Amino acid sequence: MLKEYDIVVVGAGPAGTTAARFAAELGVSVLVLEKDRDVGYPVRCGEAASKDGIEQFIEPDPKWIASTISSFILVAPDGTEVKLNFDRRGFVLERRIFDYELAKIASHSGAEIVTKAYVYDLLRNGNEICGVKIEHEGEKKEIISKIIIAADGVESRVGRFAGINTTTHYSDMECCVQYTVSNINLENSSCYFHFGSKYSPGGYLWLFPKGNNSANIGLGIGGDKAKKRSPISFMNEFIDSKYPNISKLTVVSGGVPCSLTLKEIVMQNVMLCGDAAHQVNPLSGGGIVSGMVGGSICGRIAAESIKKKDFSHLKKYPKEWHQRVGKKHEMYYRVKNGIYKFTDEKLNSIAHSAIKIPEEKRTLGAVFKIALFDKPSLMIDIAKLFVI
Description:
By secondary structure, the protein is of the alpha/beta class. It has helices spanning about 15-25, 50-55, 95-110, 155-160, 225, 230-240, 290-310, 315-340, 345-355, 365-370, 375-385; strands spanning about 5-10, 30-35, 50, 65-75, 80-95, 110-115, 115-125, 130-135, 140-150, 175-180, 190-195, 200-210, 215-220, 245-255, 265, 270. About 45% of the residues are buried. The mean pLDDT is about 90.
């Protein structure tokens, strides 16, 4: 590890290593600092992502694909199942292996990656940010850097150090818990989503198959609901009722910011990407692909700024993010708020109407049209997201 780099990236998740890769590919020096001892561990994610999204950045490889998905099964509170087939495939990933591969690509592109490196403050020269302060292998060190990219997760500490408000309103913070389980028999090409007040009020419960009779079972509920009852108690009630004989191999918990992108994702020479910038899809809570998109834009523009010796160029990052993904996330956010307070009776009614649609014509867009037919202002968003 040198004493000075053009760019320091804090966090070695998909957004961070993708930012590092795209910056390093333009020939600038890049250091990635990961506080944990391993890249990609612990896994705090449902691990599902679209094939199209992943293929933008890496060729699919069976070694990090646990299962290939071709349908969703939506389960209403009364148990009615609505199956949605789709031509575009999705993956349930083995994130630990997947994240390693992304890190190796970044490394091959020229980025240096250091684990067990905890960033505890920013380095300043007067009012100017000029690097990071870290603790690594028991030693405190200072690393000089022209640009710092914060990919350090929800409510980014590095973003806060720079003066960016990274907090999330509790109603937009999904409180999540997930078990990876074995001895479960699921259709291996389908992801299951359960809705309703019994198991997932104001959110949803997911079952993502991982092959060989294993799966991720998780749920996310709004922060306002979690204040009254813990997510893990909903989860345990569901498992005790539906799958009493499974083995729980791992458990993880945490928050997912299902909000709009932060108002500020650049402050001086500090840039935020991934969960740190709230680049998660507010409707689904998925953030792997959108974080990689944000990271790729962030890393490229950071490197361009270095080469141009023009830090005003960093202002292009929020604009480009908004044009490519952020604008869609605003629509997803409006749709989320439109369906957020549906009663169990409403959810059952939607499911009963949806199963009347012939399976070959049944799409996610068609289901949303049924759900929001009495909210005409949202139909335009639905059309743009799922039809156009």
